[in-house]
Amino acid sequence: MIQSDTNYRTSGLVFLNFFLLVTMGSNDELMKLWLSADAVCFDVDSTLCKEEAIDELAKFCGVGEEIRKCTIEAMNGNISFQDALRTRLNIIKPSKSILKQFIETHPPKLTDGVKDLILILQKKNIDIYLISGGFRTIIETVAKEVNIPKDHIFANRLQFDQDGNYVSFDKAELTAKSGGKGQVIQLLKDKHNYSNLIMIGDGATDMEASPPADAFIGFGGNVVRKKVKEEAKWFVMSFAELTNVFKNGSNNMEV
């Protein structure tokens, strides 16, 4: 028996509503925001990429264990971000030459499925930004891998003396401060009038950026932060979960 166009369309919408209910439960409003997003902001370390770049840089410089402990404290929200950044950089003291060697020998390890998700977002003309407490020099190589322009990167800038030795970091950068990611998002919303801006990340500093982000999606595909898993209204373990929402949602809205 051939189903009529009307019945087929109705069945498709029923499936979509069921899909929303099963996937999000009482938080289906968040999924609706995701389906209508006009901008998406990604954290980079342990979200867009599998690793924490500062931890890998520390290992490269022979101070990995000291830095790892400090990173965990910062990601769990136990110390201010700027204090953690200052402490870590004073231990690593990355020179220009060391950074260059690190970048040349450590290409970005993108998280599984993130390229597919970004491609879908780009096809839908959804603006994408990278907001990170990491270092711009390193993140530019990541952005290149996923075809995100440099002016869509918000990250920390390191400062060097005339011989290329590490001196400090630019404290004027919003991403160098506690609450800085939220300030970047507010800046973007004010400038571009985004109505549905979504923040995706693994850490407490990402979650704190919503609001002003219209929604936050916690990501645990590389590491699960206890605070984020417990407090995020939407928590996913893979980017495929987000990609499938677009695929299933779009397909069934079109029937």
TrEMBL record:
It is an enzyme of class 3 (hydrolase). SUPFAM superfamilies: HAD-like. Pathway: Amino-acid biosynthesis; L-serine biosynthesis; L-serine from 3-phospho-D-glycerate: step 3/3. Keywords: Amino-acid biosynthesis, Hydrolase, Magnesium, Metal-binding, Serine biosynthesis, Signal. GO terms for cellular component: cytoplasm. GO terms for molecular function: L-phosphoserine phosphatase activity; magnesium ion binding. GO terms for biological process: L-serine biosynthetic process. Its EC number is 3.1.3.3. The active site is at residues 43, 45. Residues 1-25 form the signal peptide. Its cofactor is Mg(2+). It comes from the Eukaryota. Pfam families: Hydrolase. Belongs to the HAD-like hydrolase superfamily. SerB family. This is Phosphoserine phosphatase.
